[in-house]
Amino acid sequence: EAGVVQSPRYKIIEKKQPVAFWCNPISGHNTLYWYLQNLGQGPELLIRYENEEAVDDSQLPKDRFSAERLKGVDSTLKIQPAELGDSAVYLCASSLRDDREAFFGQGTRLTVV
Amino acid sequence: GNSVTQMEGPVTLSEEAFLTINCTYTATGYPSLFWYVQYPGEGLQLLLKATKADDKGSNKGFEATYRKETTSFHLEKGSVQVSDSAVYFCALRIRGGGGSNYKLTFGKGTLLTVNP
C-alpha cells in the first residue's frame, strides 16, 4: 500500500514569492493533517481536514497561508507571500479517522532566501 | 495547555548499550501517549503507544510505560543497534473541543546516534 506522498521534497524560493505544497493521502483516509516542523522542534499542527472540511485551522496563519482539500482526497498548502521565517519542513499526514493512527509523508523542506 | 517535554539531545551511545529517553507531559484531560521515530530522510513513523495508565507500549525492542502518577512516558531499549540512529519524538493526543477532535502535541525530539 502506498504511503502518504508529498511533493516537492525540496523547494527553494526567494522571499515574497508564492509556494505550494501537494499531498496525496493514503487511499480511504478521511482525515488529513498539515504540520509545520521548524528546525530542532517537534511538528505543530497547522490544519486538519475531515474529508473536504477544515475542522481545525486555529494554528494556520491565515494572512499568508491557505489550504484546500477539494473532493476530500488530495490537499494543497499555499504560502503567499513567503517570508524568511517560513523556512521549515511541512509535513502531511493522514488517518482513517481522527482517532486512528496518523501516517506521515516524508515532508517538503522549504528554504526561503 | 498541553505540552510534552523531552530529554535534550543529542544522545550518543555505543552498540548494545542501554537507552533511556525521558519524556514528561502536562495535559488537560486524559491523554494517549506515543513515541514516533524519524529515520534520516524519512517521514515520522509511529513506534509505540499507550492509551491508559500503566499500559506498556512496545515495538522493535523499545518499551515505554504510561505513568500517570509521574506524568511520564520514558522510552527504553535494552540493547541499541546502529540502525536505531534516528530522531525520537514523544507525543500526546487528547480531545480538543467538542466531539472527536484529536490533535497530536509533540516534544522537540531527541537525536540518537549509535556507533558501532
Structural class label of chain A: mainly beta
Low-confidence stretches of chain B are: none
Report the mean per-residue pLDDT of chain A as an integer: 93
Order of helices and strands of chain B: EEEEEEEEEEEE
Q: Give helix and strand order of chain A, one letter per element, not per position.
A: EEEEEEEEEEE
Choose one word for the global shape of chain B: globular
Largest sheet of chain B: 6 strands, mixed
Task: Compute the CA-based radius of gyration of chain A.
Answer: 13 Å
Oligomer: heterodimer
The class by helix and strand makeup of chain B works out as mainly beta
| Count of DSSP H/I helices of chain A | 0
Q: Percent of residues of chain B in beta strands?
A: over 45%
| First and last CA, distance of chain B | 41 Å
Polypeptide structure, described:
The complex is a heterodimer of chains A (113) and B (116). By secondary structure, chain A is mostly beta strands. Helix content of chain A is 0%, strand content 49%. Chain A contains no helices and eleven strands. Chain A has strands spanning 5-7, 10-13, 19-24, 31-37, 44-50, 53-56, 65-68, 75-79, 88-95, 103-104, 108-112. In chain A, the strands form two sheets. In chain A, strands 2, 4, 5, 6, 9, 10 and 11 form a seven-stranded mixed beta sheet that branches. The termini of chain A are far apart. The model of chain A has no long low-confidence stretch (mean pLDDT 93). By secondary structure, chain B is mainly beta. Chain B has no helices and twelve strands. Chain B has strands at 3-6, 11-14, 19-21, 23-26, 32-38, 44-50, 56-59, 62-65, 75-77, 86-95, 102-106, 110-115. In chain B, strands 2, 5, 6, 10, 11 and 12 form a six-stranded mixed beta sheet that branches. In chain B, strands 3-9-8-7 form a four-stranded antiparallel beta sheet, with no helix packed on it. In chain B, strand 5 and strand 6 form a beta hairpin. Chain B starts with a strand and ends with a strand. The relative contact order of chain B is 0.33. The model of chain B has no long low-confidence stretch (mean pLDDT 91). The A-B interface holds A 3-4, 40-45, 48, 55-56, 91, 93, 97-99, 101-107 and B 4, 36, 41-46, 49, 89, 91, 96-97, 100-104, 106-109.
